[in-house]
Write a structure and sequence with these properties.
Length: 139
């Protein structure tokens, strides 16, 4: 291990093992909330809205509902639960129903917009759970 790396690790209280380095690397890839991994092997997160209760039971919830599309460059992973969804669309997904064409379009548009801005389509740690769930539309 080179001297600079040893100095950096000493700032984290590392005493020669690599566990601190591994933890620092893993934390930069996303917080592990115990939800498992996405298809692209990154940690599943809280999503933009946080845990949204599903109608199936008291312990059922959704956070991101990861999906993917194929482009010329390969697979592109993104969440279906994005800030542009209405309350009715969130309720539709929370009931366990498949995404409608409108939900797919909103999610894809949001993912492409974020990618074009140089951002990950999934909520970053500082964005997770920060988006308020929208109110019902007045009819």
């Amino acid at each position: 291990m080179n001297n600079l790396l040893q100095q950096i690790l000493s700032l984290f209280g590392n005493n020669g093992d690599n566990s601190t380095l591994n933890n620092a690397i893993n934390s930069s890839e996303g917080t592990d909330y115990g939800y498992g991994l996405r298809e692209d092997k990154t940690q599943k997160g809280l999503g933009y809205f946080g845990e949204i209760p599903m109608t199936g039971g008291p312990n059922d919830f959704m956070t991101e509902l990861g999906s993917q599309m194929t482009e010329d460059e390969g697979e592109f992973h993104f969440p279906l639960i994005v800030p542009t969804l209405t309350r009715e669309e969130l309720d539709h997904l929370a009931s366990g129903k498949e995404a409608t064409n409108e939900i797919w379009k909103k999610a894809q548009d949001h993912a492409v917009m974020r990618r074009d801005q140089g951002k990950d389509p999934f909520a970053h740690r500082e964005e997770e759970g920060k988006t308020p769930i929208p109110e019902y539309l007045k009819r």
